[in-house]
Amino acid sequence: MPPSTHPTHLRALYRALLRELPTSRSPLHARVRSAFLTPPQDPAAALRSVQAARECCAYVRAQRCYVTLLERYNPGMGADEKKRVELSARRVGLGMPDVFLRE
Fold first, then answer.
1. For residue 75, which of 91, 64, 98, 51 has the smallest C-alpha distance?
2. Phi-psi category of 79—alpha, beta or left, where left has phi over 0 and alpha has psi -120 to 50?
3. What is the pTM of this model?
4. Which residues are CB-contacts of 57 (< 8 A; sequence separation ≥ 6)?
5. How far apart are CA 95 and CA 45, in angstroms?
């Protein structure tokens, strides 16, 4: 049995995938679980599916990091227009008039 298809390696990969997924139970959780419970019988197919799972885990981890960096460096990205204007004014050293802020 190759090391990448050893049960302890598969369990670690399964847990890594679950850590990267949203916390709520979803059909995706069930799909990942069923994929790990019924591995392919062909050793070559098993190695391909393990490699695909590793790549998926790396991709999801990179996406999570990307979103974190986007939120950190673009703080007004999800804000409404008034908040975005206020943040832009503050960024260049200006303050918004009270009239605009009260509306």
1. 91
2. beta
3. 0.67
4. 13, 16, 17, 20
5. 62
